[in-house]
Structures are given as structure tokens and as C-alpha cells.
Amino acid sequence: MTTATDTGQxxxxxxxxxxxxxxxxxxxxxxxxxxxxASDLRWEGMVWGxxxxxxxxxARIVRxxxxxxxxxxGVVAVLTHEDVPGHPRYGMKVADQPVLAADRVRYQGxxxxxxxxxxxxxxxxxxxxxxxxxxELPALTDPEQAVEGAGPVVxxxxxxxxxxxxxxxxxxxxxxxEEARRLADVVAExxxxxxxxxxxxxxxxxxxxxxxxxxxxxxxxxxxWLHDDQHQMCAALGLPPDKVRLTLSGVGGxxxxxxxxxxxxxxxxxxxxxxxxxxxxxxxxxxxxxHVHRHPAKMWFEHGATRDGKIVYVxxxxxxxxxxxxxxSQVVIANGSYFAAGAYEVPHAEIDGFSxxxxxxxxxxxxxxxxxxxxxxxxxxxxxxxxxxGIDPLELRLRNAMTTGTVLPTGQAxxxxxxxxxxxxxxxxxxxxxxxxxRVSGAFSLPGGLNNTTHGESVRRGIGYAIGVKAIGxxxxxxxxxxxxxxxxxTGGEPVAEIHTAAAECGQGIxxxxxxxxxxxxxxxxxxxxxxxTQVGDAGSSSASRITWMSGGAVQGACKAVREKLTALGEGLxxxxxxxxxxxxxxxxxxxxxxxxxxxxxxxxxAHIAFAFAAxxxxxxxxxxxxxxxxxxxxxxxxxxxAMNPLAVAGQIEGGxxxxxxxxxxxxxxxxxxxxxxxxxxxxxxxxxxxxxxxxIDLLELPHPDSPYGLNGVGEPPTLxxxxxxxxxxxxxxxxxxxxxxxxxDDIAGRG
Amino acid sequence: xxxxxxANGRRVEADDVWEGESLLYxxxxxxxxxxxxxxxxxGECGSCTVRLDGVPVCSCLVAAGxxxxxEVVTVEGLAGQSGEDAGLAPIQQAFIEAGAVQCGFxxxxxxVAADELLERNAAPSDADIREALSGNLCRCTGxxxxxxxxxxxxxxxxxxxxxxxxxxxxx
Lengths: 752, 171
What we know:
Oligomer: heterodimer
Strand order of the largest sheet of chain A: 4-8-2-15-12-13-14
Largest sheet of chain B: 5 strands, mixed
CATH topology of the domain at 429-474 and 606-748 in chain A: Aldehyde Oxidoreductase, domain 4
Strand order of the largest sheet of chain B: 2-1-5-3-4
CATH class of the domain at 429-474 and 606-748 in chain A: Alpha Beta
CATH class of the largest domain in chain B: Alpha Beta
Number of strands of chain B: 5
Number of domains of chain B: 2
Distance between the termini of chain A: 36 Å
Strand content of chain B: 5-15%
Largest sheet of chain A: 7 strands, mixed
Number of helices of chain B: 5
Radius of gyration of chain B: 15 Å
Largest interface: A-B, 64 and 60 residues
Structural class of chain B: alpha+beta
Helix content of chain A: 25-40%
Order of helices and strands of chain B: EEHEEEHHHH
Number of strands of chain A: 29
């Protein structure tokens, strides 16, 4: 990894402080197998919960009888919608999803009933003894029908007061399209599609709910946002916040798939009903039905440019299939629409984004949050435009690259660093990997890999570039804040800082970064990051690449407040001051600058706090006879503002790039007539170590003016540009259109 | 039924085991060894990798009864094996230092598999590492740091494999 600025040991920097490759505090437990994930939790007298789910994408429930299931020895409870103590529906943004379906199911996998039993297998058998009859209804499975107003209505009565199947239409109008069309010498049009991607985190949805003596419940769960879960649970359980206490258990990956609740309400209902601790843990198949997915998308792009390769306008129509319930669909389509013009200076734009209800699986947050789809669309059509113009695709990108001050289609001027051209130049300057004949021959070096399907015949190389931009943090007027508490005390005569936040550690390393900040700000060696829970104020979600910025800012603020209190105590050594005056504690609420919603008519508004950029150059080799693909190298360049922990930053970039590779060539949850055809790791393929190439990284650290330490969000940008870079490389190798990802062997074999 | 076998060098016994229970379930739920992970329970992800008489297996695909009278080594059995008062095994330390651990759910299975690879081959090429670990899925890292960790740990195995053993990692 090379860096634009020195990220090595700095003189005067605290040991393992900000900027150091500090090691994870949970690392030893994780390598020993001693780290407690949600699915590892146990409690005295615990029983197992299980969920009955609808086999149909659309049906009326005509009979539901739990008597036989209740009689099975070992079963302690069977619950239905009648047993929901509070509000019958929940949801992150709009409470439209039944806690348990009453008379109607709207997607395959919708929860209908719950069982608690003394053994997970007993619970599963009890599910089969629940007598349920459905009357199947016509399912709406085509999002184009949904947007046109054809076909059945998914929600007869919408909670948000609207009608029909359009969740949201985002309309952005920028400049003057009539004028733009006159100025354009060349027009390039394309229709691009993205399949349904799954987060495929490895740790299954799981949680343990323990009934309290006060009539409340303590819940240990793997989630991305404890306080939002608490909010939704309180409503469904009919309990006040002090009776619904959450603690973060070990989280086995998240990537957006743990933003919506899964087992939380169900496990708590069973615990409160039975008076016994209840554990729920999905298996892999159930996990595919137990969380939302990345929206599949169909996108129509039209670019107009002058003959010398200046983009004049973009017209884009985005159609995202949100599935049966809202989840975060209205925000995902907004984010996709905001960035449909890509990382370019585009003076005129007409963007229409639609997310719709269907009877397909619900879709919501996944790393990149809508911007992944639109980046794929715009970057694919950029290569199309380059072909039409007869200009090198990289050159076309450089001529139009966004800079600081570029006005987005939403009217907001980009502030902060916008090094789009610099990232692309760095990728271009990197030497290409050797051609196959010059490489050390290895089983993995050619398409087909270990299967040894070619010795190099019919193998063609291709190179593709892509760049992406997205907003960091919550956008569009959401009041985003994060709270931290820091306590400095003496333990064994040595100062120890304790940090308490509700920030969810999902693997990304927020626990490490919080400790680094405390070391830097307080000059102490020993830092303890307490378990995240709802006993401290809201941290907001580990999503939108925001948690290091927001909780990092809160920890920094709390540390500074502690320092001020120490200063007020007088001069002297830290240990002496603490010995004389006792522990010093402070709480701090971090807020970023205000954002504003965009208007409904033209989509204008200062909606964002920051923008982050990443670019990829993919080198692929394609066996054109068999359609097999080898991504030989996936080089990337990204501006991270400040690498708070360079080792963790590289991990985020490599991991995000891998998920983008998965979307490009292998990952798709296949849905036919509303039914998922491949809910297993046998049939839903994610990249293995044999599929992943080297991911060389060029890291820029251009300080962001508004953030703690100048950092910028890191986690999502790599998932934007990796997919279209690979798709563009495949098009370069084959000459095929390849409009849809994931690209399958069938799309290539024998067509070149 | 009752199942008796050796887990990490210790004789263990599980009672009331239902015939359909996997070795993974018995380790996790009956023997207090939750280190082996339950990511797919269909033999695709490698998170539950343990060694059965020295051979790496997906413990989710092994019926508990098949472990009767055999030797099982889980991730919990790796630390403290390489010397008198040794702490983490070299591969465990290397995973931490290389940044190969993020969420860590795949880590136990990868460490058992990598440990077995290095025991056989203390100087693996990158292709060797990729082949040996191709049955272990990781969703967080993109694998680059996992390769780093195995490369980093290899010298530690070169020095203590004077008497290589594929029979058992146990003393």
C-alpha cells in the first residue's frame, strides 16, 4: 500500500493512537474461538425459538391452529399475531411490516408464528405441526408492472397514506434539458440491470432474550443500531425504553443486513410470554429469508456529449424493486438517484428514481445503499459513450471528472476534497500484471482455476476502469448524532480510560478506533471499550460509512471534556490528580452540520455532509469458449481523508472490493415468481480465496475540513466502483454488451 | 445416545444426544466448545472446520456418533500447544497481527485449516494457500490479509515440524 501522505509512526504520536496500525482488542478472543457471537449465547433454563414462515409470495391465511404444535412434548409456547403485546407492525422508517402476519402474507418467508421448545429440533418439528391453510393470491413480481400501476396492489391500505405500488419517486431536475440536447453531438443510451445481492454475512441472525423481574426484558443481539431496535421493540412489545434493555453481542458481519430487526421482537415476545430465557438463531436458509437484500435494479441511461468528449447531460431512470415492505426503500432510491450522474461534472440532468412494492423479498440496506446500482449504470454507460465518441474510456473520465465546487444534480456544490481525476491517474500509472504466458503458472492463474479448463487458448484479456462517489453519513435532513461517555480512573495506580458508546462493532474495527482516539486525546496507554448497550445514549447506526466519523467524534469530544475537567483540577501528574480527586467522567454528543431534504419537484437541496471517492481498475481474462472469467487484478485508489488505522482501512477496502467482484461475476439471489431459488451457500456463490485477485491499494489522505482528524467514511466506496470496473473489463475483453450483472458464463460463451 | 470421544486432548462424554445431531452441535451446545462456528451448517463455508483424527472436516457434516472414540481438535485446542507456557499458536498470533480478523466468524475455521496446511507444508506458495483455504468463506476481508497471515506464520512452523504429524496435533 502506498500513501499520499506519511501514515507511519509519527513523532509524538501516542502508542497505538490515531493513525497507528493498532491491533483489535477483540482479536485474541476471536482467534481462540472464545468471542461470544449472538449464536454462541446460552443461559440457565434457556429454550429455543423458531419461526414459521410463509411458503407463498402472496396469500390469505384462512386457518391457523396451534393446538397440535402445543401438545408436542418439549414445546413451551406457540405464538401468533394475537399474542403481539403492542403495535402489530414495525419498520425502520415506516411501520408497515407485521410482527407476525395476521390474515395476509406478502412475500415468501414472511413470519407467521413462533415456537419455543427445549431443543431446536423440537422447535422445528413443532413448526410443522402448526395447522395453517393459505389461499394463494395473484402475486405482483414484475417491478415494471408495479411502477405502471398494473397488477395487484401489494398494500391495500398503506401506512404512509399513499396509494399504489410506488414507494417513492425521486425527481431531480438540473439545468435545461432542451438546451442540453441541442448542445450534444453524440448520444449514448443503454439499459443496465443489477441482480439481487445478499449481504451473506457469516454469523447468522441470532439473539438471546432474558425476561426481567420488573416485567421488562434484557436482549443480547447482533445488530447495527441498538437504539433503533429498542425503539421498534418498545412499540411492538408495549413497553417503555427502561424495560427493553439491549446489549450488543458479537456480530458476525452485517453490511446493511442487520439494520432491520430480525429475531429481536420475536425472541423478546417468547421470553416475556414464557418467563424463560429464549435463544433464536437462524440457519443459513432462514437467514436468506430473514433479512432484506440489495435492491435489484433496472436502469435506463442516456448521456449526451460534445464531439470532444465533454458530457453535456445525463438522463436516467432508475427502477428499484423494494419487495413487499418498505424497510429503507425510500432512502435507498434517493441515494441511488443523488449519484446517478456519477463522479462527473454534468451541467444538465434529469433523473427519475422509483422504488416499488412487489411480492418479491423485501430489499433495503446493503453496503453502498443504492449508489452501488446507479454507479454500475452510469459507469457502464460511460464506456458506451466512450465507444460512441471514439475516445479512450479513461480519457473520457478524466475530461469530465468532478472537482471541488462541482454542482451536483441536486444543486449542492461539492465541498471538501474531490480527487476523482487523481484517483484515476494513479490507477493508470500502476503497471499492469503480467500476461498469462509471463506468469508463474499456477492452478489459479487462468479462467477455470483448479478445474484446469484451458491452457491459455481462447483466453482474452480486458481492462476496465470505474469511479464512484457517494455521500457519507445520513443525508436529507435526518438529525444525526452520536453520544459517548469517557471515564478516567486509576486501576492499580495506573490511569485507565473507559469508553462507553452504543456504537455497533460489526467487524469493521470501531472498537479499535475508539481506543486509539482515547490514547491520542488523553495520553493514556490503557483503554477499555465497554460493551455497547442502551444504558448509554444513541450512537446511531453502523452504516452509511458514518460510525468512525460520528462515534469517533463523540469519543474525541468526551475525551476533550475530560481533559478540561482535569485542567480545572490543577497542575500535576495525571495519576496524582486522579488519586486526589477520584475518577473524572464526561459525556459528549457529537453532531455534524445540518443537512436538508431535497424538494419534491426538482430534487434540489443541500442534502449531504461529505462525499467519498474510490476508483478501480480491473484486469480480467476471459475464456471466450467456456465463458469463464478470471479477475487477474483489482487495483483501487481511494481518498480516506485520514487513515485512522491503516491496517483496518486496507481491510475495509479489500473486503468491499471483494463484495463488488461478487456482484460482478457470481452473486445473485435468484427469484422466480416471487420464490427464492437459491437460499444456500451451495447455490448463492460468494468469492472464495481462489476467486479473489490481488487488490493493490493507492491511498490518498486529503483531510476533510469538517470531520474529526480530517477522516472520511471508508467502508462503502469500494463496493461502488469495483463492480462496473470488472464489467467494463469484461466488455473490453469480449466486445459484448453484458448489460446485466452478475455476468454469467452463458452471457459470454460462444457469443464473442 | 451417549457419545464419547477426545476433544482437545480431553476425554469428553455427551449424554442424551439425538441421533440427528451433528458433531458441531454437540461441541457447541453440549460440550461448551462454541469456537467452531455455525455459518451455513451445510458444508459450504468451512467455519466449523475441526480436525477429526488429524484430518480437517466440516463438523456440521459429521454426525456426532461418527466421532465415537476418535480424536477431535477444535480451535480452542490450538493455543498453548507449541511450548511449555506458550500462548497463542503462531497462526493465531499471525491472524491478529496481519489484520486477518474482522468480524471473526470465519476465523476459527480458517485457523484450523491454515494450521493443518502449515503442519504439512511450512513453506507454502500463494497457490498452495489458496488451494488449502478455498473451502473457507470469509465475507469481510477479501482474503488479502488472510494470505498475509499464513505467510507470516509459516516460519514458526518450519522450526517446529522436525517431527511432523498428521495423526494428531495433540500431545
